[in-house]
Design goal:
The complex is a heterooctamer, with 6 copies of chain A and 2 copies of chain B.
Chain A: H1 7-45, H2 55-79, H3 85-88, H4 90-111, H5 117-124, H6 138-161, H7 166-183, H8 191-215, H9 225-239
Helix pairs in contact in A: 1-2, 1-4, 2-4, 4-6, 6-7, 6-8, 7-8
Chain B: H1 14-55, H2 64-89, H3 99-119, H4 128-132, E1 136-139, H5 151-159, E2 164-167, H6 172-195, H7 199-218, H8 226-260, H9 265-272
Antiparallel strand pairs in B: 1-2
Helix pairs in contact in B: 1-2, 1-3, 2-3, 3-6, 6-7, 6-8, 7-8
The chains are: A mainly alpha, B mainly alpha.
The complex binds manganese (II) ion (2 copies).
Keywords (chains A, C, D, E, F, G): Cytoplasm, DNA-binding, Endonuclease, Hydrolase, Magnesium, Metal-binding, Nuclease, Nucleus, RNA-binding
Function (chains A, C, D, E, F, G): Exhibits both single-stranded and double-stranded endoribonuclease activity. May act as an activator of RNA-induced silencing complex (RISC) by facilitating endonucleolytic cleavage of the siRNA passenger strand.
Family (chains A, C, D, E, F, G): Belongs to the translin family.
């Protein structure tokens, strides 16, 4: 090679390519670990469809898994150079959606309300704003919440089977709220939009369950919306 | 974004001189196209919002008159401001030339307007000729947006300066495409009405969808690929609405049988009073 | 059946479609006629690749074909309702591009310069501006011109085979001029852009032919750019 | 909406969506401006294929355009939040490749060597390392350099036509160096790889030109590689 | 053109192409006519989904349309040269499937049984065996029958809505029979196979309708399979 | 012609291909035979959707078909050279999945539990481990089991129609158990994963049937999970 | 199965499917045989690219292969029912195109002219008109001829390498004639059209070969078109 | 990545217990697959590097012997280390089961080896049977990587413990696919030889490609979709090499004619001496 071009440039570039490959493999290994832990949480939480008594225990176990996930995200945060979040995030976002769903479900089971983005971020050790560091985007939070709605519709059905008639009413208000919120948005034609379109069917199924309960007078009590709102906090202890 | 900057330093051949003119003409077209696309996007957004507003009508909320009034005002405003802008851009031009630029907005408007008519219990859906009058404007003088017209054009216009009609044409195909989307909204209406216990609306929606679908079955869409796709969607909307009515029927029938057993009279009672109170969910 | 939607609406629409279809079939018949004539012109002009002596005669024949094309366009102009040009133009534009190419080639062979849009329009009996009536759009004129450049690259090759070494030099300047012109345009990502991208290959091929001539000292005379410009008008008579 | 979910969440999210749309449109406007300026530089530099005397002037003009591009990149740098470079970069990278190519060409014409990434970055007001701010990735630098090689192969052909026999020899060593460098790399099957595959044809074409010159004894002087290296700096002044 | 190739070959071929084009256009015109008539039949039969009383009248109207279709097929049979059925049949088969479906539906509504291929062929004026002339292939007959199953699943749903609880039971047995028949076949991976896969969903949907009726005690009477078989002949007259 | 590459190499390869083709055709003939027998078993077992009384008889018939399938697999085992199982297995695996499904269904109907891989292998005369010979892979066993779950969801629906309210409860526990089992697996993104994703819908459908039964008080008896487990063995005899 | 549908229908249909499958397999076996023979002819004719002396021998060998192909077509003709040519022809047409190409090439090598459809049909034992029996459609004849043009463009290149400078001139006129012929046609947008579009590249490539020979003064003699036409008959004997 | 962690807390049904076993079996397979993929990737990279090394052979640099020696050492090393690892993984297994995992590496190795033979001027290209011996290993004892084998298996192996042959099978199809890629390398060799003025190599490469292509024409690839694709690529490589020779011929012919005109004797002289000196570029 002559004086025109320094071979060094290409050595440096090869170095760059090798580094990137290595980084991607490290990310993949961590993501697989997080995935494994989130899967475990999912298995614990399956109990909601068959045995309501075991729910509190399942929530505790799930939280242990989330702790392990947090460790994984911590490793990711250390690994990814600060400004390169968007260069690599496709590798873990799919799994993040699932973890958000599972955390949302756990919080709902424990406390009966919608987990906030701030709380999810805290549980996973993520920042809320990207300026502060490795963060949780609002889109990804919402993707997880929509996944949760789908699980709740199944939960409503099985709760009835297990003889719990108040849970579906509670779920119905919860999911209906979510639906109203999403209807306010002008969504682009992306994955979030598709997921939201699926929500409508979850809403419908839950409404049918509520209808079935109501028509048979199985609803715990006739209550006005105001009463319903009051009753809300109480519900969960009854149900669990 | 013109090329005027280079003009000084490059010595022009006659070809270059001609191409500078061509560049201007192409840029003009392109700019006009972009402007119309933006106008159309505004119409799309506003039309979607009006549809959203119309979906908030609920018998039990007793807000029908109010919402319809609001929606009508906003629909008129779209005609009198947004579409007027497009009509001005298209003044003296072949409307087909920029059709693709404003077609999405136009179709969404048609969808919104026909959905408005549906909810208003109009005796008859307006067709493209009916709607055309909303998008026909009498203007006092030649529009000021056109500046690069030649002298001859100017003098021609001066003769007609007193009154002039400009339009934003609604082509039948655009109407038919926009109307097909109405099916989706009526289907949503059907599902939402089920949610709020307004059974009559469900059946009305289902009947309307069946009629609409039968109408589209008549069309032999030669060379248009979009219409068949829309018909497929319309069929699915119809099936969904039919399913809703089916569910009402089987569940309603069940309720009736429980009723005769005197175990669920209370529940039936609730259905009857749905119109007045907040319902049970 | 709902009374809101009247079936007449659809009958009316079908009527409208049927009328349109009828018009389209009439257009198709005329376009086929124009196509036939432009094809004949193309066949006459193929002679440039094999027998330069016959070129003037071929130009004459081609012009007769253009006259017939003009008749076709006249019929189209009468058939298309006012301000509906853009509704139907897809049916004939493909062919218009070819006719423009052939007229451009003929004028180049006869006179050595780039045909103007006005001249093409005149030969085909079209207007230049849309406001005057059935017209020739600038994009369509340019598409034809680009097709011509491609044919000229082939012509340059075959001229050498036929022993004419001055023609390629002339073509090279001509097409290079054209190339500079096109570079002034802001093209969208459309068919014109794609065609223009192909022009680069034509230019390159022609430059290589000129290169082959130059390096072998076969060029008619070594001349400065200034001399070249002067010589230009003379060249064509020599070549033809 | 009830107490479950605060509508605020959705208002905030809508705000977020709107902001993003707005940001994208702002980016698009700036990129269009940069594009316009890089196009102008390209037009000036076209002169290398027809008139070597005007090259120095063209380089000056091109540099003015690069100054305007730098202003555009400055605006982009201010607009894009620091950590979101990779979220939006697809919008401008295509054009960045072209500007790198044009800068590379200008430097080569002016000084006869390969522009370094550092110099390109400086001319465009970009950082070299992403940790310092809005930067120029090495991949994007190389994409531009490969585009330049293609233009140089055309330049080699036309230089011969214009009677300059030393330029192709110089270009040949330059492009051959580049080729050797790239051959050292293990490239993934991406756009860089595709562009590099095209380089091989540029190399071949340039070698043919050199062959033609050599076989006819038109090369300025017979020189050893060592001499060639020495002669290199001198070449450009001779050529211009 | 030189001595290598006789222009005659191409003239002859052009003649061939023109003839074929003409034939295809004639076919297209006839098929369009048949299509129009089959569409009209389809529109008449739509009434089954909204008004059961009008069904007998709709069947009468549909039969008039089939008569017009027969005329169309007669014209086709005269137009197509005997050995070229399979060269052109793609132009009309799509529509034939629809006509078969509509005839099948009409016969089912009128008489409650599955129309035979022989009957369809007779109604449309087609032969059963291809050696006898313009015929109806068994695949095409079955494609139509499968389309009918899909419409029947919709009919079962709407019959319930219209208060007819016995119709779905009848349809269920009918479609289940069809399903059993198809299960006997070894189908290739073609369009018939795809259509048959869709049948499974129709079967499932109809079974769910029957399930809904049964679990709510809406079925006309609880009967054993044996009773069902006996009752079968009687059902249709009641339902129509 | 180059002497380095000898044409015998290619003749030898073609010979190899021809031998392989011959073997494949032999395999195809046997597989078609097995297919026919498994199809027959499927037809017998269809009776579960219409006549529960005939189920025991259908199981007996199905078992006869499995015997015939075993003969087919024996022939395959003799035909395939040692350690070439995976070269040809694509030809029969599709069908193996179906046979596993049918055996699983038969065992469930007869005995109410999940057939083990060992039992399936024994019935079909296959080995469990690859080292012992022609064997049944775990993936293929699982594919069949998932197909069975789908059929059971349909069975649950139709059992209700036929007035059997205890069967769905049993199926629900059975499939839910299966679902928990599958959740333990780490599935790659392959066909097994896709099939498992479909299981969710089967589970949901079955849960809805159980829900319908529960809310209407049609369930045979209200029982705790513990009681349910006890009751399980008894159920099948009741249902069959 | 109940009274609705006669199982017989499906048995009959299965019979039909089995027959068709058998027929197709027979066809496939014959076609494979023809393919093998045409491949062998192709391999023999490859010698034109490396050893011109062996061409006459290769033509003889190729003709033996064509004889074997004829036997295959004879078997096909006996197998296919007269009216079903177009139902099955897709299975062999692809190969027919290749055989036509090879016959065309052989005739060109032996005699220097374009083989006629009649001759091809005779060599393969096919009829020219479909009314007479198993025939060769003109489209399929032309597809083969176009494939030949592509091989001739390769031949022109390699002939030069092998030192034969007159062959390319002959090929050029031959292919240029073909090109002129095709230009007369109004082709639909089908496979023939696509193949014809490829011809343009073959023409261009051959013209470039002729150009390369001419500009270097390697052409056997400078001759006018008139002389060329005279010389044409003589050329082939020289070349072969 | 096993599921051992859950085992404690969830009460197992028999189904769950069985599935835990299944999970292990699946994980084992998957892990083995991944390990083999990585081994294969190493072979691919090293083979590509060997090919790259072989491309550095240039007549004028006189480095042929040295490079061939190096390449042969590295090829042997690939066989004796990398492939041995795979053979150990596949011990006692059906080789076809993990074929897709190591096929890319194997094909690249075949390409490298046959390119090595081509440059070595071997009298005859090795076929799959010839190469197979390189990938056949005699090992002293059962490999230690297999730990979860059953007792019976162990006792069986103990009988044969003294000597055992393990292999990494080269299937004919793999060989044919790998060999097809040789075309690309020979084409590259042809182009590079043109660059360094080694005309003989160009013609040799072209002839070899023509022969190779003719060989592939013989194959009737029933049911294999990759072979036709490779043949298309091979045809293109052949055409490229033919074009190179064509260019040498027309330019060489031209040089000859210039030569007779006595104006370029010097240039021809240079070509003749290309083998010794550094050439003119
Ligand atoms: Mn809409
Ligand atoms: Mn390779």
């Amino acid at each position: 090679m002559s004086t025109f071009i320094h071979q060094e440039l290409f050595l440096k570039f090869q170095q760059h390519l090798d580094n990137e490959l290595e980084l991607k493999e490290k990310i993949r290994a961590i993501v697989r670990e997080i995935e494994q832990n989130s899967k475990e949480a999912a298995i614990h939480l399956q109990v909601i469809h068959s045995n309501i008594e075991k729910v509190p225990q399942a929530c505790l176990e799930a939280r242990k898994c989330f702790d392990k996930c947090r460790e994984g995200y911590k490793q990711l945060a250390e690994l990814i150079p600060p400004k390169q979040y968007y260069k690599y995030c496709d590798q873990w976002l799919y799994n993040t959606h699932r973890v958000v769903f599972l955390i949302g479900l756990t919080i709902y089971l424990e406390a009966g309300f919608l987990v906030s983005r701030e709380t999810v971020a805290e549980i996973l050790g993520l920042k809320v704003s990207q300026s502060e560091g490795f963060h949780l985007d609002i889109e990804d939070y919402l993707m997880g919440i929509l996944q949760m709605a789908s699980e709740l519709s199944r939960f409503a059905t099985n709760a009835v089977t297990l003889g719990d008639y108040s849970r579906p009413l509670n779920i119905s208000r919860f999911v209906s709220d979510l639906n109203s919120g999403f209807r306010l948005l002008n969504l682009k034609n992306d994955s979030l939009r598709k997921r939201f379109d699926a929500l409508k069917y979850d809403v419908k199924r839950i409404e049918e369950v509520v209808y079935d309960i109501s028509i048979r007078g199985l609803a715990p009590q006739v209550q006005t919306q105001a009463q319903a709102d009051e009753a809300e906090q109480a519900t969960d202890s009854t149900a669990a | 974004s013109t090329n005027s900057r280079q003009e000084e330093d490059v010595v022009d051949t006659p070809v270059m001189a001609a191409f500078r003119e061509y560049a201007k003409e192409l840029d003009d077209k392109h700019d006009r196209y972009e402007r119309i696309v933006k106008m159309s996007r505004d119409i799309t957004i506003e039309s979607k919002r009006i549809i959203f507003l119309l979906h908030t009508i609920e018998t039990r909320r007793n807000n029908r008159e109010k919402v319809l009034e609001d929606a009508e005002k906003r629909l008129r405003a779209v005609c009198e401001t947004n579409f007027l802008l497009i009509a001005r851009e298209l003044e003296d031009l072949d409307q087909n030339q920029y059709l693709r630029a404003f077609s999405p907005g136009l179709q969404e408007f048609i969808e919104a307007y026909s959905y408005f008519e549906y909810l208003k219990d109009s005796s008859k859906l307006s067709d493209w000729d009916d709607l055309q009058q909303f998008l026909t404007y009498n203007i006092d003088k030649p529009s000021s947006t056109k500046e690069n017209e030649t002298k001859e054009e100017k003098s021609l216009q001066e003769q007609t300066v007193a009154k002039k009609q400009i339009v934003c044409t609604i082509k039948p195909v655009e109407f038919i495409l926009g109307l097909a989307d109405l099916g989706g909204e009526i289907m949503r209406r059907c599902i939402n009405s089920l949610g709020s216990g307004d059974i009559d609306s469900c059946f009305q929606a289902c009947r309307t969808l069946q009629t609409l679908y039968a109408g589209y079955l008549r069309i032999r869409p030669v060379g248009n690929r979009e219409i068949p796709r829309k018909i497929t969607t319309l069929r699915q909307s119809t099936l969904k609405a039919e399913n809703v009515c089916y569910n009402i029927k089987v569940r309603g029938g069940e309720a009736a049988s429980w009723d005769t057993l005197d175990t669920a009279g209370f529940a039936m009672d609730k259905i009857a009073h749905d119109d007045e109170d907040e319902g049970f969910y």
